[in-house]
Design goal:
By secondary structure, the protein is an alpha+beta fold. The protein contains three helices and 22 strands. The longest helix is centred in the N-terminal third of the chain and has 41 residues. The protein starts with a helix and ends with a strand. The mean pLDDT is 84.
Amino acid sequence: MKIKKKKISKAILIFFAVMVCCTFIAKQTSAMTIARVHTEKMKGGSLVKKIEGTGEIQAADKSFQSLPEGQKVAEVLVKAGAEVKKGEAVVKLDMDYLNRQIAEQTREVEKAELDLKQQRLTAKHEQDQTDASVKEGEEQTDQTTDEEKAYQKQLASLQEESLQLTLQSQREKLKRLEKLKQVDGTISSDYSGVLESVGATEGVVTTGSEQIILESGSLEVCGVIPDHAVGNLKEGSEVRVLAAGDTEEMKITVERFGTNEEGKSLWYGKLPEQETEKTYRSKTDVTYTYSENTVGSYENVIPLRALREEQNATYVLTAKVCAGILGEEYTAVKVPVKVIDKDEEHAAVQTSLPADALIISGSDKYVEDGDKVRLDG
């Protein structure tokens, strides 16, 4: 009898040992197959609007000087970035090309003078014919004769005036060419400053749109505003700027706004006085960052990475606890939310979730609604 009881006790112990082993193995297997998730709770607070962009350091003031139209550039005498004084030679024109221009323009002036002389002779001849016809007693009324004389006189006057304007224009053009020749085709700067660009290269025939651009005055930062952030920066906003080659950021205050040739919005701000001691050059590239807390506070703020989208609907997954064979288990449950606002890291939402809901913000495996999950840590 005692032996039988011992066998039963031993069998029971073996059974429980097997159960413990099976439970342990089951939990280990479950741990290997079920996704481990990181959860966070909702909290109140504000969002941070962050803008990042690029730009450059440039001169606050610029002067522009047009190159003469229709001339061939022989040489650009100053390199971009060099200091230029008022009256200093910047561009040398091709003298052979200029002399041919002067010869052609001289012929144009002579032609305009002949046209004007011919017009005056023609007008006088027509007037003489009209006067002779009247004297010969042609059959016409005095009124008709007066009207014809007035018309011819007015027409001749308009034609002569047009030719005089043409002659004047041709003479002025010749005068400008001769003035270029007097200075040996040298284009000198009308201003002092740092040369940004000339707008023409050796061998190019100018169209009149090319300009010598000089930079002067203090330096400022010009930043390009991303399209999605237009309107977020205001006058007086403080921007953190990092210039190429620097390791420390400088704080720049936005002073004004503008647009570039591509229609992009720009902001401008002068370099702080302590930064002007550094030898920054115009066209130095910069990156900038602007951060600002939203006005007011939101009741429900969640990590942006917790948001999911499906068929234009936004939702989150929560880890909901429930009883299982092996003890408490967690299941991913889909809950819709409405996004009110967001920044780069968080989103403010409207939701029916309680404050202590465990919102899944990360996992080591893909998780969807209804999946079993286990909490990280």
